[in-house]
Amino acid sequence: MGKIALITGATSGIGFASAKKFAENNYDLIITGRRKERLDKLRGELLGKYKIKVLALSFDVRSLSEVVENLGNLDNEWRDIDVLVNNAGLAVGLNHIDDGVIDDWERMIDTNVKGLLYVTRVISPGMVERGRGHIVNIGSIAGKEVYENGNVYCATKHAVDALSRAMRIDLVKHGIKVSNVAPGLVRTEFSDVRFKGDSKKAEVPYKGMKPLSGEDIAGVIFFCVNQPPHVNIDDILVMPAAQASSTVVHRT
Ligand code: NDP
Ligand code: 8X3
């Protein structure tokens, strides 16, 4: 039986690249995201290229009922999930706290924190039962530092950082590994979402520097998951060579 990886947020960026990376390495995949056409297209592409099984489940991680409906009662062939990559997430808006848009805050908190918790709550009991599994949470440099206008996004990623540590403590006795992968600037659709489709503004963070790619982070996620059984990568901060902190970026 092949290994199974569940990757949330596989319609774009880091999740999309991770799906390809795990597929190349013969994992059967459960890929999720809201944009069904993209998931179906990716599924078709992976099935055409690799001898693996792919289940595409389109739902919103912010909805507990959708998470439970889609992941809570998987067929037997999909139940034994070896790897969960909690990747679905976003930043929306960049405002000072006194000027914040409540709907943006709710989208970030509901997706990055509550969505990650809902998926973990549904998938982790099976891992506990089987006495094995690996959860990789996608944190951020924004979970290590805060920066001007980053307030709520940074808070959600600090929460992911804390949850990764807490999950490790709660799950260690069940043989479950938990890794936190915290990237700096990665050129995906992240910035387009943050700037609400303003493509000019979305380019600004990457001006004059080479950001990471989704593939770079997919490689790091796969590295975490492919350590010997006695080794766990607890936490890994991955930055572009030109970025020294959230706000210090060398641009040419
Ligand atoms: P993208 O915007 O390219 O991808 C985000 C993915 O998350 C998409 O597949 C999207 O799918 C999914 N997603 C967002 N909201 C929901 C939702 N409510 N329900 C289900 N899926 C959802 O960005 P990245 O690949 O860059 O982001 C992936 C993760 O990496 C995020 O957690 C982000 O915070 C983190 N990160 C990104 C960095 C960067 O610079 N890019 C740096 C550090 C961390 P869909 O829209 O189809 O639902
Ligand atoms: C995304 C990286 O620096 O935009 O998590 O917060 S940053």
Can you walk through the features of this model?
The protein is α/β, with parallel strands linked by helices and 252 residues long. It has one domain (4-238): NAD(P)-binding Rossmann-like Domain (Rossmann fold). The chain has nine helices and seven strands, in the order E-H-E-H-E-H-H-E-H-E-H-E-H-H-H-E. It has helices at 13-24, 36-49, 64-71, 76-79, 102-130, 151-171, 190-194, 199-203, 214-225, and strands at residues 4-7, 28-33, 54-58, 83-86, 133-138, 176-183, 235-238. A seven-stranded parallel sheet has the order 3-2-1-4-5-6-7, with helices on both faces. The longest helix is centred in the middle third of the chain and has 29 residues, at 102-130. The relative contact order is 0.14. The model has no long low-confidence stretch (mean pLDDT 98). Bound molecules: NADPH dihydro-nicotinamide-adenine-dinucleotide phosphate and 2-hydroxyethylsulfonic acid (8X3). Residues 140-142, 150, 185, 246 line the site of 2-hydroxyethylsulfonic acid.
